[in-house]
């Protein structure tokens, strides 16, 4: 039986043929240029790092997460992941509209807006996402890692969180490595020595138990069997 951390995980990317068509259609849609954190969130949505999310969360899911720590489906989820937009853009968008999501140069995804609401002075959009291509700074995807683990026979894999980032990273990262006795005894040494198998961008939202739980989900979606936060 294939270990759970080696089984492919669902992604939100469409086929290359569909991506080409949607890219052409996307030139006619309202375009939102993502912040660096939003682009990082979109990357994790599209590649399965935020599974089981299928897009930016709806108001009902956000309310459920804040109240119960679960999505309305019942799946555990610790923190809202929404698309915050400015008032000018929000005033042009209604539920039922499609919008194009861009990193400033490339069209990355098409979002079908189902929810449009204000919270804490920010307008949020929610809805499913069709992924066209990863951001330019994209890291390793869950399925790339899971395929590598299958090929290498790694059934015990750990994810380490580095809140300071690395020398060549402008944001916090998670490092994924095969478990060894040396790693378990001295996990910090692997961060400081920049010895790692993969790097995953994951922006902090808060320093609390909910953020620790989000790191756990992202790490396990990337094939880790244990996570050091």
Please characterize this protein's 3D structure:
By secondary structure, the chain is α+β, with helices and mostly antiparallel strands. The chain folds into two domains: about 10-130, Sulfate adenylyltransferase; about 140-229, no CATH class. It is built from eight helices and ten strands. It has helices at about 15-25, 35-45, 60-70, 85-90, 140-150, 180-185, 185-190, 210-220, and strands spanning about 30-35, 55, 85, 100, 105-120, 120-130, 155-160, 175-180, 200, 225-229.
Through-space gap between termini: 29 Å
Helix segment tally: 8
CATH architecture of the largest domain: Roll
Under CATH, the homologous superfamily of the largest domain reads Sulfate adenylyltransferase
Count of beta strands? 10
Q: Say what the CATH topology of the largest domain is.
A: Sulfate adenylyltransferase
Biggest sheet: strands, sense, closure? 6 strands, mixed
Kindly provide the name of the CATH class of the largest domain.
Alpha Beta
Strand content: 15-25%
Which structural class best describes the helix and strand composition?
Answer: alpha+beta
Helix/strand order, N-terminal first = HEHEHEHEEEHEEHHEHE
Annotate the secondary structure layout.
Layout: H1 16-26, E1 31-33, H2 36-47, E2 55-56, H3 59-68, E3 83-85, H4 87-90, E4 98-102, E5 107-119, E6 122-131, H5 142-152, E7 157-162, E8 173-178, H6 181-185, H7 187-192, E9 198-201, H8 209-221, E10 226-228
Parallel strand pairs: 1-4, 7-10
Antiparallel strand pairs: 2-6, 3-6, 4-5, 5-6, 7-8, 8-9
